[in-house]
Amino acid sequence: MVNGELVLESLTKSYDDQVAVDHLDLWVEAGEFFSILGPSGCGKSTTLKMIGGFVAPTSGRVFIDGKDVTDLPPNKRAVNTVFQNYALFPFLTVRQNVAFGLRRARVGKQELNRRVDEVLELVELSTLGHRRPSELSGGQQQRAALARALVLRPDVLLLDEPLSALDAKMRRQLQVELKELHRQVGTTFVYITHDQEEAMTMSDRIAVLQNGRLEQVDVPSAVYERPETPFVTQFMGISNMIRAGVDRAAEGWVARFANAEFAMRGSPPLGSSVDLSIRPERVRVSGAGSVGSLSGAIVDVSYLGAATHYLIELDANVTLQAAVPNDGVHHLRRMGEKVSVHLSPEDLRVVGEDQVAESPVDAFTKVSTDYADHVPVN
Amino acid sequence: MTNSKPKGVRFPRPLALLVWAYILWNLLPVVSAMAFSFNASRSRSEWHGFSTQWWSGTPLSLFDNEEYTSALTHSLELAAMTTVLSTVLGTLLALAVTRIRGIGRRPVNFILMIPIVTPELILAVGLYLSLTFIMVWPFSAIELGTTAQVVGQVTYTVGFVVVIIRGRIAVLGDGLEAAARDLGAGPIAALVLVLFRLLLPAVLVGAMISFAFSIDNFVITQYLSADSSTVSIPMYLYENARGGNATPALNALATVLVLSTLVVVALASLMYRWATRRESVESHITSTVALSA
């Protein structure tokens, strides 16, 4: 059986009158790659420090494999951390840095050398063991910090935005390496990041935090495609937010905006109006005059390489962002060009579950966050 | 560094002259005083040829005269004790001060600055009066002489050591200590294995400053002295430099003062460079998460 099940129970940290983390309940399965995602100041770092033992929670408990570790100091927890900016000891070589924890644990010389060699090989630093941290590149320092934490075979490995100091290309490469490393060692990874793309790339599941509160926990595709709160909708990539009127219908309901009506499925929202969201890649753009479409004009063009983002002002004074792939099928449109926009009702999502009495979508999300049924990807 | 000077921008000549004039003005008296310790005659202003007679060989030579050697050894003793004590005490105080949280923080920081901003004379007189007239422990336990002199010098220098080390602690942040704790080190081990090692450069600078202060200190050392056995080099020079028994041996004594300071400064800066070598990850240390305890 794999160790490393982590449970946070109503974890709270307040500084004076400021609440950094507010009754956070999380359950991380053993061996999972779990990301805690949120903007700066959302409490994700404080949460990590409470798991690592660097910050004492105001209330709530931390359990690792069922054992309450809330009151244990950092050195007594089977948890190791890859710090933001690595915190490598500048006066020690890479080897000595990696051996530091093993020496504290009084591991015999032979085993120590074997384990250091093993982990340096794992992170591909075997030939650089004699160097000092300042003689390594950013990516190498990052791997040294990983090796130093992993050599102790922690039940849970905490990673505090370990890639944030690297350039985009190196970051992409290390994301892949980290994922591969996770697959090899099978340790529970708890990964802190503010980068939603990074979280989606790497994680089995993502917890989105805002203002110290949990917004949503789910697999990446669910968090992206079925955000449960307005915050998650906005935070997970670009979203168009539309205010729409609500009409009852014999079956489902009708959303009214931009002088058009959309037949929606499910139970109608409670109010007379509702917030809808739609991803830019689901906004379909075609030439002016298409039947059954909204018409508008392009007011901004951003060429992003793989796709082009258009800002389209509809005649009814609603502005939408559309992402069109540069795949050779779609041609580049110019600023000011008149276009037709087509939106499918199934791509329109009601934002905020409190607006919906009982919708099938809601029920679905509940099932997927039911931990008992959840099976991690690996 | 010289390459970083932009081309075409010339160092203005009058300013260069000013720099040279300043250096000469500083060096000349010291160098000439040192040179006259090798004079072949008793004169300290007229050169009569080279000789080492004022250094050793005659009863009036620096190393053969009881008065000189006593002042010499006493000064070095005082400097050694002051350096060790103020460095150890200053380091511990700096650690304690940076760990104070809450309302005590500001007052303590302020109080630690008092010896630095107080005129030395006031501190010396105050200490002298306290040690002489207050019959309560610990004042009663400290007698004028070597003990009182060390206490006085440490009182003064420890503030500087605290300021220097506290600055370094602030630059380091808590990141590396937290990393040590994370890797299984207990609080003491993290302090010794990581923090002290990182503080070493600052400790060296603190030690150097303490030594330099102690070796040429006059006011405190004078006030808290007892008999002739507690006369230091500066005190001896002050008493005798203008009198009738002023010989080039005094120049030799002053030379020892200058050289010992130079040697200590050179040693400390060498060790500083050794301790901070390859420390370009400094920027990382600085920006490492400040963990709030």
TrEMBL record, chain A:
A Pfam family reported for this protein in Swiss-Prot or TrEMBL: ABC_tran
Q: Which InterPro entries match?
A: AAA+_ATPase (IPR003593), ABC_SmlMolc_Importer (IPR050093), ABC_transporter-like_ATP-bd (IPR003439), ABC_transporter-like_CS (IPR017871), Mo/tungstate-bd_C_term_dom (IPR008995), P-loop_NTPase (IPR027417), Transp-assoc_OB_typ2 (IPR013611)
A molecular function (GO) held by this record is:
ATP hydrolysis activity
| Annotated ABC transporter domain residues | 6-236
Q: Which UniProt keywords apply?
A: ATP-binding, Nucleotide-binding, Transport
Coiled-coil parts of chain: none
Q: Which Gene3D superfamilies match?
A: 2.40.50.100, P-loop containing nucleotide triphosphate hydrolases (3.40.50.300)
Query: What PROSITE patterns would the database entry show?
Result: ABC_TRANSPORTER_1, ABC_TRANSPORTER_2
- Which domain of life does the UniProt lineage start with? Bacteria
Any GO CC annotation of this UniProt entry: ATP-binding cassette (ABC) transporter complex
Q: What is this protein called?
A: ABC transporter ATP-binding protein
Automatic annotation (TrEMBL), chain B:
State what protein this is by name: ABC transporter permease subunit
Q: Where in the cell is it found?
A: Cell membrane
Q: Name one GO cellular component term.
A: plasma membrane
A Pfam family (short name) is BPD_transp_1
Organism, per UniProt?
Answer: Nocardioides glacieisoli
Alphabetized, the UniProt keywords read: Cell membrane, Membrane, Transmembrane, Transmembrane helix, Transport
Domain ABC transmembrane type-1 stretches:
72-268
Q: Family per UniProt? A: Belongs to the binding-protein-dependent transport system permease family. CysTW subfamily.
Q: Name one GO biological process term.
A: transmembrane transport
Q: How does it sit in the membrane?
A: Multi-pass membrane protein
Give TM segment ranges: 15-38, 78-98, 110-136, 156-176, 188-215, 252-272
Main location group? membrane
What SUPFAM superfamilies has UniProt attached to this entry?
Answer: MetI-like
